[in-house]
Amino acid sequence: MQRVQVVGRMKPMIDEHKVKPFVGLDPGRRPTEAELQQARLYKELLLKQLIRPGIDNMIPQHVPLEYQAKYARDFDELLGYTHQVVPVLELFICAYNDYIVKKLIAAGMTVLSQKALSDTKGSPCYLIRFQDLRNITSTMKAASEGIPYKRMWGGQPSSQPHR
How far apart are CA 39 and CA 36, in angstroms? Predict the structure, then answer.
């Protein structure tokens, strides 16, 4: 009989499909505080299980010197949209399907990680390929212009109680 030694036990991954709230975009309906709390939990699960490990394994990209000025301008534009979208990710989680939500969270966290790495190094660090920068910018721009439930509380979702 052969003995097998168990070195370590992996924690079971929580199924994010069982956690993700879905409110949709029905007129007059907005997420409750409980649904927003569930959305925060879902976001943290995605960050822990999927997004951060992916970002941690990203290899910095080479951007040729002649493209670096354009990259910097485009990245600044993308960063502006990201700063509008990331604080309200829970609203997107409640309103949209998994595919859209994961795309927004991954894009937003990658942008913020690239900015943090560049700030830490004191020089540009390119996690996002130059070819992908415009597509990600278009996605984040569209998201910033279509923040769900925005009209229900005058564009300031965090200033109103969620009931």
Answer: 5
What pLDDT does 10 receive?
41
If you search the block for the tokens 């965090």, which residue do you land on? 158
Among 75, 76, 79, which Cα is nearest to 133's?
75
Determine the 3-state secondary structure of 140 from DSSP. Answer: helix
Query: Which own/partner pairs from 52-59 qualify as long-range (CB within 8 Å, at least 24 positions apart)?
Result: 52/109, 54/106, 55/109, 55/110, 55/113, 55/127, 58/110, 58/113, 58/127
Q: What angle do CA 22, 38, 50 make, to 5 degrees?
A: 90
The per-residue pLDDT for range 114-145, each reduced to its tens digit, is 999 999 999 999 999 999 999 999 999 999 99
